[in-house]
Please model this.
Amino acid sequence: MNEQARPKAIARRITRPRKARPIPRNLQYRLYHLRTRPKRPYRQRERRG
Model:
């Protein structure tokens, strides 16, 4: 089963572009907050640590 399944999976990866794949929710959540957050909390963290 594995021998037959692997070539198909590889072929799908090659034929389909990476951008067509939806981004997982946890990554979207992280990227959204990293982009929208102001830079003030990061400066405070740097002083503390």
Observations:
- The CA atoms of residues 43 and 49 lie 10 Å apart.
- The chain is about 70% helix and 0% strand.
- The chain has a mean pLDDT of 62.
